Automatic annotation (TrEMBL):
Superkingdom as given in the UniProt entry: Bacteria
SUPFAM superfamilies assigned to the protein according to its UniProt record, in alphabetical order: 6-phosphogluconate dehydrogenase C-terminal domain-like (SSF48179), NAD(P)-binding Rossmann-fold domains (SSF51735), UDP-glucose/GDP-mannose dehydrogenase C-terminal domain (SSF52413)
Name this polypeptide is given: Nucleotide sugar dehydrogenase
Keywords, sorted A to Z: Membrane, NAD, Oxidoreductase, Plasmid, Transmembrane, Transmembrane helix
InterPro entries listed in its UniProt record: 6-PGluconate_DH-like_C_sf, NAD(P)-bd_dom_sf, UDP-Glc/GDP-Man, UDP-Glc/GDP-Man_DH_C, UDP-Glc/GDP-Man_DH_C_sf, UDP-Glc/GDP-Man_DH_dimer, UDP-Glc/GDP-Man_DH_N, UDP_ManNAc/GlcNAc_DH
Organism: Rhizobium sullae (Rhizobium hedysari)
Membership in a protein family: Belongs to the UDP-glucose/GDP-mannose dehydrogenase family.
GO biological process terms on file: polysaccharide biosynthetic process
Domain UDP-glucose/GDP-mannose dehydrogenase C-terminal, first and last residues per copy: 335-435
TM region positions: 21-47
Molecular-function GO term, any one: oxidoreductase activity, acting on the CH-OH group of donors, NAD or NADP as acceptor
């Protein structure tokens, strides 16, 4: 049973908005969350190990599309938001939220090094009366079996001295209809008092709260959401390859199928999966399932199909160059259109475009890219050799100088009508030309 004084004191602070929140990891999840919480009246301190982010935030400059400079400035001017790289400030925080990456290793095992290191940093400053929340996507059991265990090594006990919970992030970069405060928030806690604190705190910042029975259940909710998308995207990617062999346009099939008002939900094929969630999160469950000697065939098969898409697309590109231009890929210059993993955002996390460039160059071709949102390729975990490459201007002369344009991301800012006129060959993985009524003989779908 929790200490009445710890629980009551924190409950009162949350109720009157005097609780101070600390958010560790100011990326695509952490920064929008920090501003949403600050807007609800809480003082928020953001923590990050990247000094460049702290410098930008001190200058009131946002590096995340979902957070406008004006919004950042408003909360900073009101004294509700500040950022620091000094984790000693965690001790002054009543609520501490972990929003750090949870990538995969090269063997597709969970890499929880960021979660573990952050938990140890919190443990150094842990005190009675704090609520610690994990938002990073992970396998069921992480919050209780890893974060809680690390924190309890201090001698303080969860549910007695401090409280711990899990609430999965649900950010969708580029979504104009939903933002952090309007997306329903799943919350869970280690014990009834922790759950009550989670409900009170998040309920003050977001419109809808969805309580579940345990941290493991909440962790499973997030994985289920992403596995659902991964499996269905893999299905249409596989259908794409089968229908293409039959001379059937999969996009036309999907457009007709989605007219059914029940029992069908449209998913669309592409050059591969991108973003932090769908290419990575399902494998957290496949790894955990081994502990129970249970196979996850659907998840693993979906991963294989989706991971194979970049190579399939490059194969279609090579075939188109050979048949249409009489030229080998190894002697061709290719412009990859779109580096971001989805349209109208600058997010390149796990983008299949990076893999497309790599495969083209592995096969001897030369690949450049154009992206109106990504001027230069930043440092990435897996594609360090691409760091520093710059976006090519989409001029008539430049486009005409390439043997083919490979459309990987269908940004709205691109003049596709001009592209049809200027490019000798186009390989379209997004069906953008048909959607815009720009079909042509030299536009090949892949």
């Amino acid at each position: 049973m929790a200490s009445p004084s710890s629980f009551a004191a924190l409950s009162a602070k949350i109720k009157n908005r005097s609780a101070r929140a600390g958010i560790i990891g100011l990326g695509y999840v952490g920064l929008p969350l920090a501003i949403a919480i600050a807007r609800s009246g809480f003082a928020v301190v953001g923590f990050d190990i990247d000094p460049k982010k702290i410098v930008a935030l001190d200058a009131r400059k946002s590096y995340i599309d979902a957070v406008a400079d004006d919004a950042l400035n408003t909360e900073a001017e009101a004294g509700r938001f500040s950022a620091t790289a000094d984790f000693a400030g965690l001790q002054a925080c009543d609520i501490v939220i972990i929003c750090v990456p949870t990538p995969l290793t090269k063997h597709r095992d969970p890499d929880l090094s960021y979660v573990e290191a952050t938990s140890r940093s919190i443990a150094e400053h842990l005190r009675a009366g704090q609520l610690v929340v994990l938002e990073s996507t992970t396998y069921p059991g992480t919050t209780d079996d890893i974060v809680k265990v690390i924190l309890e090594k201090t001698g303080l006990r969860s549910g007695v001295d401090f409280f711990i919970g899990f609430s999965p992030e649900r950010e969708d970069p580029g979504n104009q209809h939903y933002h952090t405060a309007t997306i329903p928030k799943v919350v869970a806690g280690d014990g009834p008092e922790a759950l009550e604190l989670m409900k009170a705190f998040y309920g003050a910042a977001v419109t809808t709260i969805v309580p579940v029975s345990s941290n493991a259940t909440a962790e499973a909710v997030k994985l289920t959401e992403n596995i659902f998308r991964s499996v269905n995207i893999a299905l249409v990617n596989e259908l794409k390859t089968v229908y293409a062999a039959m001379g059937i346009d999969v996009w036309e099939v999907i457009d007709a199928a989605k007219t059914k008002p029940f029992g069908y939900m449209p998913f669309y094929p592409g050059p591969g999966l991108g973003g932090h969630c769908i290419p990575i999160d399902p494998f957290y469950l496949t790894w955990k399932s081994r502990e129970y000697e249970l196979p996850t065939r659907f998840i693993e098969l979906a991963g294989e199909i989706n991971s194979a898409m970049p190579r399939y697309v490059v194969g279609k590109l090579a075939e188109a160059l050979d048949i249409r231009a009489g030229k080998a890929l190894s002697r061709s210059k290719v412009l990859v259109l779109g580096l971001a993993y989805k349209k109208n955002v600058a997010d390149i996390r796990e983008s299949p475009s990076l893999r497309l460039i790599e495969i083209i160059e592995e096969r001897g071709g030369r690949a450049d890219y154009h992206d109106p949102f990504v001027a230069e390729i930043p440092s990435t975990r897996e594609y360090q050799e691409l760091k520093g490459r710059k976006s090519v201007a989409l001029t008539q002369e430049a486009v005409a100088g390439y043997d083919a344009v490979l459309v990987a991301t269908d940004h709205d800012q691109v003049d596709y009508a001009a592209l049809v006129k200027d490019a000798p060959l186009i390989v379209d993985t997004r069906n953008v030309f048909t959607r815009l009524g720009l079909s042509a003989q030299h536009v090949i779908k892949a």
